[in-house]
Every structure is written in C-alpha cells, then in structure tokens.
Write a structure and sequence with these properties.
It comes from Archaeoglobus fulgidus. This is HEAT repeat domain-containing protein. By secondary structure, the protein is mostly helical. It has one domain. The chain is built from twelve helices and two strands. It has a two-stranded antiparallel ribbon with strand order 1-2.
C-alpha cells in the first residue's frame, strides 16, 4: 500500500492513475473508509505534503466500495470548488463513479465549472462525465480547442479537439 500511495505523488501522470487503481485493488474493504479519509487529508495544507493524485485514489477506492463512498460523494464532488485540487482528476473520479452521482447535482456542477475554467483536460473529463450522467455535453465539448491527453483506462492518449469529438461520440467510456 505504501508504494501505491507514493506513486500518487509521481511527476508521471500515468503512474498516478495506475497507483490509484492499485490502491483500489490492495485496499481491504475494512480499511476503505480510513484510506479515503487519509487521501482527503493529503489534499490539505495540514498534511505537509499535498498529494496531487489523491482525488484519483479516492475515486478508485470509492468505485470498489460504493457503499462506503456514498458518505463521501458530496465531499468529493465539492472538491471541484477547491482551486488547489487537480479538478480534472475530480471530474475523472465523477466519471468513474457516475452510477453513484446520478441522484446528485454533479452534472450541473460540472457544467458550471466547465463554463468557468479553460483547462482542456478538465473540460474533456467533464464532458465524458456529463454524458455518462445522461446530460448533453455538447456545450462543454465545443470549448475543447486544443489537444488533450486523457487516461482511457489503460494508457494516456493525446487527442486533438476533433479526435476528442469523435471519441466522445463513440461513447467508449
């Protein structure tokens, strides 16, 4: 577990995604709540070492333990309001846990943030999440104007704006 946590801090983005997936596999259900709490704590200044990959770890452990994540889903959603957090990872986490977010304001908050922010990766993950939540992501997709590198569950793929439009139409995620 310690090694997986360490890679959430990695400068290599792919390692962060893989570490989060490993945490979900390695984390026993009996400890899932404590690990999620620890990952939230690692997002605060109090921890002394901000962990950029924490939202990915929270999302993956939550995906494996939806009954436990249920009590954290709103707190996780509102990480979108925290400008210090890697918001694209929060959008990715909402995408990964879409079935848990159907009855929440997640889609509307993603749409609102997509109008405020110009982070192309955030826009891409938000569009995918909005679509998976049953919404119309076309206004968000229109804002994607440059190449974006996203995680497809296996690897990081770089898509130009047109390729991303084709990708989201195929509804692969």
């Amino acid at each position: 577990m310690r090694n997986a946590f360490r890679y959430l801090y990695s400068a290599e983005e792919l390692l962060r995604f893989k570490a989060a997936e490993a945490l979900a596999v390695l984390c026993p259900k009996s400890n899932a709540r404590n690990y999620i709490l620890r990952l939230f704590w690692l997002l605060s200044d109090e921890s002394g070492a901000y962990c950029i990959g924490s939202p990915l770890g929270i999302a993956e452990i939550g995906r494996k333990n939806p009954d436990i994540f249920e009590s954290f889903k709103i707190k996780f959603l509102y990480l979108l309001e925290n400008e210090e957090v890697e918001r694209s990872y929060v959008a990715y986490g909402i995408l990964r846990n879409a079935e848990i977010y159907f009855d929440t304001e997640a889609r509307f908050l993603l749409e609102k943030k997509a109008l405020e922010l110009n982070d192309q990766k955030f826009l891409a993950y938000s569009a995918l999440a909005i679509q998976k939540l049953g919404g119309d992501a076309s206004n968000v997709v229109k804002r994607i104007s440059s190449a974006v590198k996203i995680y497809n569950g296996t690897d990081l793929v770089e898509l130009d704006a047109e390729a991303f439009r084709d990708f989201i139409k195929s509804n692969i995620f």
